[in-house]
Amino acid sequence: MNNIKMIVGLGNNFNNKFIKTRHNIGANYIRKLSNKFNIKFEKIKKLNEYIGCLNIFNKKIILLIPNSFMNNSGKSIFIVSKFYKIVLKNILIIHDELDYLPGIIKFKYGGSSGGHNGINSIIKIFNDKLFYRLRIGIGHPGNKMQVNNFVLNYPTNIEQKNIDFAIKKSIKALLIFIKTSNYSTAINYLHSKK
Predict the structure, then answer these.
(1) What does the pLDDT look like over 117-170, one tens digit per residue?
(2) Domain boundaries in the chain?
(3) Stated pTM of the model
(4) Would you call 23 a catalytic residue per the annotation?
(5) Which one of 23, 95, 116, 140 is the catalytic residue?
(6) Which CATH class is domain 6-191?
């Protein structure tokens, strides 16, 4: 069974200037999801993290936007997962993806970080690559030297429109995944052209 118990949206969350940037799309996804279900985030002092809880289909899903910079995401996720006794294979990580155009969103299980600092941090601290991911395309600037500046800037209006449209469909796919615990069914829905 692919039983998702925690969903994490990656971003740089120590500084408000990053909130709407490409690199914060994972965190913004969690905000959209929580708004849809009217979920409030509460600070858990002993964790120094803000936690939300999605109660749906008789399941309780922890929502987390790590209270850290992207390259320290793994530490935040590790602390919260231990507190709630959730193993890595039951965690879904949502993050930006340079290799996909804006508006393309895909599930993935396992594999390398692909150079993503947040994913790299998770793999390093858990010493494991086996977790679910939802990768949100942001496009690529075309030059490796421009990547840092590109991810810390804002999507264009057209890019944001495409991303928002794709996120709506991916939330439906995510709910299928949570309800059925069937990864293949969720993938088939998300990757279909409907």
Answers:
(1) 899 999 999 999 999 999 999 989 888 888 888 888 899 999 999 999 889 889
(2) 6-191
(3) 0.93
(4) yes
(5) 23
(6) alpha beta
